[in-house]
Amino acid sequence: MTDAPRKSGAPAQFGLVVLAGVGAVALTWLVARAWPDLPVERATVASVAFIPIWTLLALALLTWRRRAAPGSGRRRLFAVHRGLGGALALVAMLIFGSGVGAVLDRALARWQVVHAPAADVPPVTEQPLDAVLSGLLAAHPDLVRSELSLHPAAPEHPWIEVVYFGPTREPVRVDFDPRSGARVAEGRGPLWVVRELHRRLLTQPLLGETVLGLLGFALALILCTGLATRRDWLRNLVRRRRPAQPLAMRMHQWVGFFTLPAALLWAWTGALFGLTLIVVPIVGGAAYGGDRPALMRDVLASDRPPLVDTAVPRPDLQRALAARCPVVDEHLADAEVHQLRVRHPGLASGTVRVDLEGDGLFERGSFTRAADGALRDCRALPAAGAGLQAFMATIVLHYGEWGPAWLVDLAYVLLGAGLVALSWLGGALLARRRERDGEARSAERLRRWLYGLGYGLPLATAALLLLSRVPALARAEDLALRVFVAVLVLALLLARTISRAPVLLHGALVVLLAAVPPAGWLVAGVVPGPVEVVLVVLAFALLSLRRPLAPA
Fold first, then answer.
1. Residue 20's closest CA among 49, 50, 61, 52?
2. Which positions, given as ranges, span the membrane (predicted)?
3. CB neighbours (10 Å) of residue 383?
4. Whole-angstrom Cα distance, residue 262 to residue 414?
5. Is 187 helix (H, G, I), strand (E, B) or coil?
6. What is the pTM of this model?
7. How far apart, in whole angstroms, are the C-alpha atoms of residue 411 and residue 89?
8. What's the Cα-to-Cα distance from 20 to each of 53, 61, 252, 280, rounded to whole Å?
9. Burial class (CB in 10 A: 0-12, 13-18, 19+), 377
10. How far apart are alpha carbons 244 and 176 in whole angstroms?
11. Which tens digits make up the pLDDT trace of 47-98?
12. How many Å apart are CA 65 and CA 54, to the nearest integer?
């Protein structure tokens, strides 16, 4: 009698994963309670460990059986990889593909702004930050009871960017000239849609982030169980004489081999960010006795004192920038100002927090001053403990906000594209298996979904790039959302209903990519540059293919 997995074992496997989650909660609480260090260290060590603990416990429970036959554990992991991977192949393509779009949104921020200010950006000490704040408070008096985020201009984004929440709690972005302080644009560039799809699935943050957190854990489980898909798979990758395998299988293994570290890092950290609804009560209750404001203050430097509705002079931002603090001066002398968070400007409960960033992984710090100028908080990550450093490193590594920007962005885009290809190939293998098992209609249906999403997401992103070249539409946030959804849904519908849809979608992608440079030149007078060259090269590369990219 063999111990091979059965198709009806999915509920049992789900139960084991849930049981592993319960065990992970208990172990995380124990770490946050008993770790021999300060409360902030106990909380951050436990937070970083939660998702890996859950993953390892789930793998252990899925493979453990009493008196199991040799190799049965590997076969069970293979069943999990095939079943869960097949169920989430399209979801993985959407998450990793939108992650690439999120990196592009940051990397192309300056390129997306049609009328960007002059490139010779003055130093932050000479930028009219106080005039910008005064103008906003005069135009929106209710902001004195709110919070604003000001990003000083820099060469990669030569404008002062201000973000605050509107009356309905939606984020409002306004850009200002870094020399005159004049308003130059309002609204986010079109690629904000892809970024927010990756961060919260374009839904309410609580719902979207929680769902993405669970999906991140599931993707981590798929990646780890992928190591068990073949016996001696690593040796088979490098030896000259390999057993006969389909090309898609070999490509799937090779792409997985090179992208596994980055994919696992992104899946774990994404799950950690998304599951704060679970993580924060665990570590806050164990390390801080339920005092969540103290946890947020110690970990994220988020000090939110109660509103004191007593008018005081408006904060002097340039004076706050000049009045740094000893810890920051000692450890982050060369770090640049990343943003200023101004809370309750003009009220007695107001604060100004200055965030600083350098190129290194741990070159982060901040200091906070009260309305009367008193120093409320001063911290530099190089001087923090290992737990807080590890926690902050997860944030920096996930978003890629470290090192030379061009190199990190290029690496993240290539790795993200590789993970989309990994998911695509996994879906192709599943379709091949269904076809071999006599499920021809199911296999064809899966292939069409792969076509629809595989072409739909790049098409929708290219449509947003085209919008960014039209001055009147470059900041039309609602229109960008409607265009993205319409293009993506149309691609999915075409792939489901028209047999020649792959050819049509392939041609549409070539046309859209090739149309962006001339549209920018003719409509907005934008002289073609490196980005336009890359788009044209991509269009010609796709055009040179004899047939559309096939998922099998």
1. 61
2. 12-32, 44-64, 84-104, 206-227, 272-290, 380-399, 411-430, 450-467, 479-496, 503-521, 527-545
3. 16
4. 11
5. coil
6. 0.91
7. 23
8. 9, 7, 28, 19
9. middle
10. 61
11. 999 999 999 999 999 988 766 677 788 888 888 998 999 999 999 999 999 9
12. 19
Distances (CA, A) of 66 to 6, 69, 71, 281: 17, 9, 13, 35
**Whole-angstrom distance, CA of residue 15 vs CA of residue 81:** 16
pLDDT, tens only, 143-197: 999 999 999 998 888 999 999 998 878 899 999 999 999 999 999 999 999 999 9
Burial group, residue 515, by CB count within 10 angstroms (0-12, 13-18, 19+):
middle
Give Cα 434 to chain centroid, integer Å: 33
**CA 344, CA 309: separation in Å to the nearest integer?**
9
Burial class (CB in 10 A: 0-12, 13-18, 19+), 413: middle
- Two structure tokens written together for 353: 């927090």
Task: Judge contact between 292 and 325, C-beta under 8 A.
Answer: no
Residue with tokens 């008096």: 141
**Contact status, residue 267 vs residue 223, Cβ threshold 8 Å:** yes
CB 199 within 8 A of CB 102: yes
Contact status, residue 194 vs residue 463, Cβ threshold 8 Å: no
| H/E run at residue 149 | strand 147-151
Radius of gyration of the chain (CA): 26
The C-alpha atoms of residue 36 and residue 106 are separated, in whole angstroms, by 40
